Amino acid sequence: MYKCFASLLAIALLTISEGIAQQYVPHTFIGGLEFPSVFRSLISGDRNMGEIQAGVNVASHMVIFEYGFENVKHENSSYSFKTKGPFFRTGLDLTLNPENQNGNIIFTGFRMAKANYRNSLDFIAQSTAFEDPEVSAKNDNLKANWKEWTFGMKVRLTERIMIGYTMRYKLGPKIKGGDSLRSFDLPGYGRAKKKNNFGLSYYIHYRLNFRKQDATEEELINP
Amino acid sequence: MKLILLKISFHYLIVGTLLVACNNIPDCDDPYTAELIVQFVDSLNTAEVETILDSVWNSGNGLVYVENDTLSVLFLEVNPVETKTTFVFSGEDITDTLTVDYSQTQFLRSELCGIVQRFSNISITYSTFSDTTLVTNELLRNTINVQVFR
Questions:
Q1: Which segments in chain B show pLDDT lower than 50?
Q2: Does A182 sit within 8 Å of B104, measured CB to CB?
Q3: How far apart are CA A80 and CA A16, in angstroms?
Q4: Which one of A77, A87, A191, B26 has the fewest beta carbons within 10 angstroms of its own beta carbon?
Q5: How far apart are CA A147 and CA A162, in angstroms?
Q6: What is the CA radius of gyration of chain A?
Q7: Are residues B108 and A81, on separate chains, in Cβ contact within 8 Å?
Q8: CB–CB of B115/A76 below 8 Å?
Q9: In this predicted structure, what is the pLDDT of residue A222?
Q10: CA gyration radius, chain B
Q11: What pLDDT sits at residue A33?
């Protein structure tokens, strides 16, 4: 799997370097909001999350930064397990249709993701000898990282507004810390025990062209 | 003919998917326990020996595990809140104390199965028995942890 990532990275670097040599014009910034997470947070008290995305173009591709947070709670009458923390992702989206004239984009890319989080557990241990022993455990400084392969589309709604989705194949989670209390959820990843996971994010983007004078009209339409 | 085959394949696909989906009942069994298993053995041939016990209790809270019984294997629950438990043995030819230290690991196995508590890194930190051996340093079902030679 790492060979796959290395190949993807090599192709990306080659494509970018070629693109930079030919037409490096950083002219477009996008800011995005993962909007379904807002609604999910409103209707579910057990899972609160939010995510924003920012990107700047490199030739016809986009360098992407993503920031989000996730608070997850699993509870029943005998236990309460909480996980809380932010996550960050950075990577590159390679535009697969740079010749497209209408501004709609199909892309693939990768992300390096990281989460700093904490978790806590309160539960009543099953015991025949001790009467309802209450056990508490927590980790305040957990770190996790993983990689993602992405594929998605962005469709232009207006001159400045775009809407789109990103499919994510997440893999290789590594967790530091938490020897006495194992992680159940990783913010931004999902179940910690899964070696790979899928995700789907829907974004609404605002596009800002900040170097009109250096960009050709075609590049502005199709960054 | 092709259409019929296609329909049959489609139905098999649906039924197969349902069977796989319905068979998703989690197995909540785990090998972990909170009981320290102590075995009395003969110091000459390590055969199990029965021992007359008046009582075995927890020195921390006075909890009595065994009272007026003759046993060769004892199941003694450790304190799930602490990392140390002391047991006091009293019997016909026995008045001894055994203290074990341990570390705990907790994890949520699944939302349905709930929390699993695992006791490991067991060590005998204090013993007045003439000879004891730590056999297994993790509390697992049906696994002897401590052998007391008599």
A1: none
A2: no
A3: 48
A4: A77
A5: 26
A6: 21
A7: yes
A8: no
A9: 56
A10: 24
A11: 84
Query: For residue B95, what are the contacts with CB-CB under 8 A and spacing of at least 6?
Result: B89
> Does the beta-carbon distance from B107 to A78 stay under 8 Å?
no
* 8 A C-beta contact, residue B112 and residue B29: no
Domain A2-221 has CATH 2.40.160.20: yes
Quick one: tokens of B15? 């039924």
- The mean pLDDT value for A145-165 works out to 92
Ramachandran region of residue B35, left (φ > 0), alpha (ψ -120 to 50) or beta? beta
The answer to which of A49-53, A100-104, A147-151 has the lowest mean pLDDT is: A100-104
Q: Are A92 and A12 in contact (CB under 8 A)?
A: yes
Q: Hunting for tokens 């809140």 — which residue is that?
A: B81
A213 pLDDT higher than 50: no
Top-confidence residue, A79 or B15? A79
A131 interface with B at CB cutoff 8 Å: no
| β A196-209/B64-71 pair status | unpaired
For chain A, give the percent of residues with pLDDT over 90. Answer: 44
The DSSP symbol for A212 reads G
- For chain A, what are the domain ranges? 2-221
| Interface with chain A: mutation pick from B36, B106, B118, highest number of A CBs within 10 Å | B106
The C-alpha atoms of residue A188 and residue A112 are separated, in whole angstroms, by: 12
Detail the DSSP E strand segments found in B1-150.
35-41, 51-58, 64-71, 73-77, 84-91, 94-110, 114-127, 132-134, 146-149
**Phi, psi of A126, deg, nearest 5:** -75, 120
For residue A99, what pLDDT is reported?
82
- Which 8-state DSSP code applies to residue A19? H
